[in-house]
Amino acid sequence: MEAPLPELVESERIVVIVHRHADLDSVGAAVGLATTLSADVDIATPGPIAGSADRLLDDQSVVRDPDLGAYDLQIVVDAPSRQRIAPIDPTTTETPLLVVDHHEPDDLYAHATYQRVDTAAPATAALVANVLTAHDIDIPPLGAQALAAGILDDTEFRAVVMPDTRRLVCELLGTASATDTDIATLWERQPPWSERVATAKAVVRANGYKAGNRLLLVTQVSGHERAAADLLLEGGANIGVVLSNRDDHTRVVASTTDQTEMSLPEDVLEPLADALRGDAGGHATAGVAKVASTDLEAVEAAVVTQIEERLGIQFGPLT
Fold first, then answer.
1. Are residues 126 and 161 in the same domain?
2. DSSP class of residue 263?
3. Rounded to the nearest 5°, which phi and psi values hold at 47?
4. pLDDT digits (tens, 9 = 90+) for 78-96
5. Quick one: how many helices (H) and strands (E) in the chain?
6. Considering 17, 116, 138, 317, which has the largest number of Cβ atoms within 10 A of its Cβ?
7. Positions of the chain with pLDDT under 70
8. Same domain, 177 and 202
9. What CA–CA distance (Å, rounded) separates 11 from 8?
10. Alpha-carbon torsion 106, 112, 115, 121, what sign?
């Protein structure tokens, strides 16, 4: 029996790192951990997410340039080398590192504090499921859905007939059935109905602000914030901001088409989080903040003010 991982159950802040162009296996493994562990978990992505895997991240805390020293545990999933997760480099801090992977070992393994590696495993998501159950951690429906999706995708759906994974996949799918999302929609070309409704509401509810030739759109939705922010940009906005009320906090997702005038995390979201008690992350053109305030009007006003101060402009209403 493998030795237990105390940081997995005792840590307060954990970062899970996926590889560049992360697929459903990598993202599914990360979301499985993020939705199951009791810690505050961020998912770090060094670049774009592949295809439908991006949909699994809609309700997760995603960062692009994490301060790795601020966490109690780093977990790299589905990546054997530093090159696969660059520019994120977990070897530059003293924070314990857990590598969970089913690829042939590479340079990242030498730096790992802990390893859960099995090249015979059909998917990294399967290894993550085994790690969680080995620590008597119950996997919730959303976590089970993400892990099942990762296993099915990496095995091209053969997992349901493979002796080593059949039982695991069936158990995960049974747990995932408690969610209101059809896992099959992850492989649909057309966005699922819930995403289509959310993005439609985002357009209808958007408040517009203009300053010269700059256009800022701010809207409110209850899910699929990333898709909604992208849609605001497609609708002509230079900056799209989406607010989502989460009972005890507000999630702020922002995107911009401008890559030079400001960095959304540094210039907008992090100051917003400092002012309203929260945290933020992302990369120059996209980011996420969680703030303690649930007053959406006040949060919207604070976002607009922060952008105005950074750009040295004053927005007027778009009529």
1. yes
2. -
3. -175, -165
4. 999 999 999 999 999 999 9
5. 10, 13
6. 17
7. 1-2, 180, 188-190, 259-260
8. no
9. 6
10. negative
- 167 with 209, same domain: the answer is no
Q: How far is CA 243 from the centre of its chain?
A: 16
Output the domain CATH number for residue 122: 3.90.1640.10
Q: What is the pLDDT of residues 117-155, one digit of tens each?
A: 999 999 999 999 999 999 999 999 999 999 999 999 999
Buried b / exposed e across 6-20, counting CB within 10 Å, b at 16+?
ebbeebeebbbbbbb
Range(s) of the domain holding residue 203: 194-312
Q: Residue 100: in which H helix or E strand, if any?
A: strand 97-101
CA distances from 77 to 17, 67, 80, 128, 304 (A): 6, 18, 8, 8, 37
The answer to whether 147 and 53 have CB atoms below 8 angstroms apart is no
- The pair of structure tokens assigned to 235 is 């609708």
Q: What Rg do the C-alpha atoms of the chain give, in angstroms?
A: 20
Residue type, 187: W
